[in-house]
Amino acid sequence: MSMMKKIVLLPLDERPCNYDFPYKLFQSDEIKIVRPNQLGSKKSPADIEQIKTFLLKECENAYGVILSVDMLLYGGLIPSRIHRVDEETLKKRLRTIRELKQKNPQLKVYAFQCIMRCPNYNGDEEEPDYYAAYGEKIFKEGVLKHKYHLAMTEEKEWQQVRMEIPSEVLIDYEKRREINRNLNMETIGYYKDGYIDALVFPQDDSAPYGYTAMDQMAIRRKIQKECLTDEILIYSGADEVALTLTSRMINNMKESSPKVYVKYATEAAKNMIPLYEGVRLSTTISYHILSAGCVQVETDDKADVILVITAPDDRMEEAWTQPSISPNYNAERNMPEMFRYILRQMEAGKRIAIADNAYANGGELDLIHMLDKHQILMKVCAYAGWNTNGNTLGTTLAQAVYDYHFGDTGQRRNFLVERFIEDAGYCGLVRSKVTDQITKMGLGYFDAGGEDGIVAEMVKRELDAFTKEYLASISDRVEITHVSMPWRRMFEVRVNAEINN
User: Fold this and answer.
1) In the 3-class helix/strand/coil scheme, how is 254-281 assigned residue by residue?
2) Most CB contacts within 10 A, which of 106, 142, 176, 479?
3) Is residue 106 exposed (0-12), middle (13-18) or buried (19+ Cβ within 10 Å)?
4) Is the pTM of this model over 0.85?
5) Total domains present in the chain
């Protein structure tokens, strides 16, 4: 057995996808994942001094660190969108990265820093308070501002929308974006100077035009100016990046990278732009494969992993609408051929990893039924189907990387079962069902009444029922051991589950 290597994880925030997933999947006899004991809570930031103390202590004898720059600077993802910290203070916080390298020059620093999003809806759940009244208008104003600078619209149209937003709101919003963008630029300098070994700028909930797209362009120009276009990655994603960079670190540690072949249910999906993203699906897939330290190949005979893509040909829909009533949704996706292909490749000994991006915000229930029907749920090496396409891709590839290096272990199987239960079961079915039920109890989507309690109990009952119906071929071996609502709302859930051999 090789000597255990320590990887320090500074996650994007305290949600299970960021805090638990890398630990659950990669903690092993060979890899020790070390996390902070305490972070913030949604809009309340983590204690920055505690974070610094944790990093300086744990990185001193570590192989590497997976570092969320947003956690280091702002105390989490949501705090990065609402903070009132001045630029100089943030630059001082960033210097912690330099200290880590100075104390341990051999430390591998894999960092990621989000490009601040600009959602196209009214709501202050994860944004500044004024976004409840002006969110849609801020988004629209950003799109028109961008298009005006590209000579795609008249200034009058842009200014008309801009005048509908109070000046103090725009001043606050644009100033914070400017500060965050400047810190993105500062981080590029740390990479250039050798304090960061790998750097990713994930774009959270993006669109082709608007504030986020303008910031991305500015960051790209800086990267080009520093001649780093081939090294620093920008792509759609956020909550999966810690998994992705841990995969890359382990590939580098092992000095071996899996070769990945991409198999689409419909070739037309390559050119589709997924919901909440701004570029074509095939482009995002190639970025995710590269970011995970894998190699994309053009033929399946050369592949260690076959990445199955279930996406539709044109417009992606939300999982709660399934089954889609759009004629092309199923007609263009040749699922019979896809399943014959999967079964044939399994017989040939190939690893099958399913990125279930047929819908946004949840897995495809018909796909799960078919995997169960053919009794191959536990024969795939990876599955994910949650939130955005980018989240799904990164989570799927991380499982495939784990299987490539460590094989079919109990923890990989538990993680896989949790993906079926959470991504398809909760996100694809149970979330909307229980939300409807609790509205009659005076609760709702943004108020689950606490982390534990009656809502968590209702969710667990429904997930147990889902397991019996949709995972019937393995349900007698599956036990859901814990369910809770980490942000006391319905969007995310914490699920612990186990499967017995």
Assistant:
1) HCCCCEEEEEECCHHHHHCCCCCCCCCH
2) 142
3) exposed
4) yes
5) 3
